[in-house]
Amino acid sequence: MSDRMIVIGGGLVGAAVAFGAAREGLGVCVLDQGDSAFRASRGNFGLVWVSSKGAEMPRYAAWSRDALKLWPDLQRELQELTGVDSGLRQVGGFWLGFSDKEMKARYELLSGISRAVDGIPFRMMEPSELRHYLPGLGPKVAGGSFCELDGDANPLMLLRALHSGLIEKGADIVSNVDVVQVRYDQSNGVFEAVAADGQRWQAERLVLAAGLGNARLAPQVGLQAPVKPSRGQVLITERLQPFLHYPMNKLRQTVEGSVQIGSSSEDVGFDDGTTPDVIEWQVKRAVAAFPALAKARLVRAWGALRPLAPDAYPIYEESESCPGAFVVTSHSGVTLAAAHCYVIGPWAAGLSQTPPDFADFSAERFRDPNKSFSHAH
């Protein structure tokens, strides 16, 4: 039996795209690798964030800005449909600097983005002003920046809400599926996904949202996804009395009271473990920001792998040789969740035109063998 759309990958990106199609009435089948997958949502810091994004790609800055504007609608829809609260808080967010050099670089970065893209405000603050918003700030903080659009959410509750929403909309979610092959039958316009155990699914449309798995699946339908793993290590403290009412780029207090500290960016292949040196570095930075944290007990540390393109920006593309097949990959599964749902989902479902200026997100940018890439993630 054929579904109209197969989505390979049941993480934050795949689930959001699938929900965006299912809410429009399409038959959707999500093939999820399950708990054995290198889920980026495990290591996602939970920021709903635009500040500093897109310095080398203004289209990405605008995409992130627009995604933040759509987020309240997604939060409201999922909560009304499923009763699950994704924990959205859009109260603004801070970045902290520990030297004049860092402050100067930050100002230049944000100024450049603001000149290139409208509607991304920022404000630089001295320590005295920061302390009005962040009581307990340490003396080593040289200053910071604030963006009123930023906020945070709970990645695991968002994933639960999306999966619950998919079920409510009649989608099929098949867990513990390791898809090893995707095929396109040009004669009848049907795609087939083949699992390692021989199971098969067919559909008229196909979305590859398998994170790191996209690298091997995409070429099978005329696409490219040159993503590699980047490890992020995250720490969590015991529950504390509320003291941190705004999220920061490396530190946030959850609604339950625990403080989340992170995250690193390490090129270590497919190793999602933790290391004492990175944990020590993260703890020292957190204590420098808020000295009172020196007394807090750490209760857990973990690592997770993000799928990063060479320039760390998303890849969104439809196959020319296999029309109806799409690759969707991004490490910003929380920030971009609403855009993946309300924009990418209908586009991949064939219900809307390609969004404006989406050629910027094509993997074509990686096809020049003489071009090199770098990113600041």
Provide a descriptive summary of the structure in words.
This protein has 377 residues and is α+β, with helices and mostly antiparallel strands. The chain is built from eight helices and 17 strands. Strand 10 (190-195) and strand 11 form a beta hairpin. The longest helix is centred in the N-terminal third of the chain and has 25 residues, at 58-82.
List the helices and strands and how they pair.
Layout (H helix, E strand, L loop, with lengths): L1 E7 L3 H11 L5 E4 L15 E2 L9 H25 L10 E5 L2 H17 L6 E3 L1 H7 L9 E5 L3 E2 L2 H14 L3 E3 L4 E7 L4 E6 L4 E9 L5 H4 L10 E12 L11 E3 L4 E4 L14 H14 L8 E11 L6 E4 L6 E5 L7 H12 L29
Parallel strand pairs: 1-2, 1-11, 2-8, 11-17
Antiparallel strand pairs: 3-7, 4-6, 5-6, 9-10, 10-11, 12-14, 12-15, 13-14, 16-17
Helix pairs in contact: 1-5, 1-8, 2-5, 2-8
Index terms:
about 375 residues, alpha+beta, FAD/NAD(P)-binding domain, D-Amino Acid Oxidase, Chain A, domain 2, 3 domains, eight-stranded mixed β-sheet, four-stranded antiparallel β-sheet, 8 helices, 17 strands, globular
Distance between the termini: 43 Å
Do you know the CATH architecture of the largest domain?
A: 3-Layer(bba) Sandwich
How many structural domains can be distinguished in the coordinates? Answer: 3
Shape label: globular
CATH domain fold name of the largest domain: FAD/NAD(P)-binding domain
E-strand count: 17
* CATH hierarchy, class of the largest domain: Alpha Beta
What is the CATH homologous superfamily assignment of the largest domain? FAD/NAD(P)-binding domain
Class by alpha and beta content: alpha+beta
- List SSEs in N-to-C order: EHEEHEHEHEEHEEEEHEEEHEEEH
Average pLDDT value? 94
Q: Which residues form runs of ≥5 with pLDDT under 50?
A: none
State the helicity in percent bands.
25-40%
Summarize the biggest pleated sheet: 8 strands, mixed
Task: Kindly provide the radius of gyration, computed on alpha-carbon positions and rounded to a whole number of angstroms.
Answer: 21 Å
